[in-house]
Amino acid sequence: MIAILNRAHQAVLLELVSRLEEFDALARQDSDRADADHEDIIRDTIARLKGLFTRAAGLRPLATDFVEGVSNSNRRTVTRSLRAAVGIDVFISDQDLSDDVAQLVAKNVALITTIPERYFEEVERTMIEAFRRGQRPKIIAEEMSRRFEISKRRARFIARDQSESLNGQLTKRRQKALGITGYIWRTSKDARVRDMHRPLEGTSQEWDDPPVVSVDGRREHPGGDFN
Question: Does residue 67 contact residue 108 with C-beta atoms inside 8 Å?
């Protein structure tokens, strides 16, 4: 996710930030005409970049790598847990997971697409508003860098949240396929644990009956709650 955002940022630098001085020079010659001209250029460029990134940025391979990476890590974790519980290695077949993995890949393609789309929309709004306020190119370029850092933090959060969610879903599927009907809820036992999760530490839970995890009565397994 960070990789696709980096590519989006480089496209913005090349297509728009590199032209800030040009836009500023036009504005000083004829401010009314220049405002309309460079706003059209910004909107047209952002529209083209959004189309390019949603169609040809290799989102499906990126999403596939992400899902398969989480899946492989989850398989190793489940295998270690089973070995610790029963004392022998248990073979885990993923033959029945192919449809689930395909659905997870499709879901993550849709999610990953929103990252550059949202970034481009923020760039368009920020640049147009900055020019309307008469900000200098240097200030606008600095704002673009700040906006990129905010988008990176958001992308990292989404990646972490999705990793936890995928891990929880895959653990449930793999354990149920092996005939395991429940689990012991474990937390990190630190300040990051949510108030509604603290009482669940060490409790036995059933895969078919998730516990209440929020004040509005929502039920989720580990990894399914919103971060």
Answer: yes
pTM greater than 0.85 (yes/no): no
103 has which bridge partners?
none
User: By the 8 A CB rule, do 151 and 122 touch?
Assistant: yes
Query: In sequence order, what are the residues at sequence separation of 6 or more whose Cβ sits closer than 8 angstroms to the Cβ of residue 192?
Result: none
Predicted confidence (pLDDT) per residue in 53-100, tens digit: 766 556 777 778 888 888 889 889 888 888 887 787 777 777 777 777
User: Tens of pLDDT along 102-161?
Assistant: 787 778 777 877 888 889 999 999 988 887 887 888 888 888 888 889 989 988 888 888
Spell out the residues 6+ positions from residue 105 whose beta carbon is closer than 8 angstroms to its own.
Answer: 60, 63, 64, 67
Q: Where in the chain are the domains?
A: 2-180, 182-220
How would you label 68-85 residue by residue, b for 16+ Cβ within 10 Å and e otherwise?
Answer: eebbeebbeebeeebeee
Residue 115 neighbours by CB under 8 Å, 6+ apart = 1, 4, 5, 8, 151, 154, 155, 158
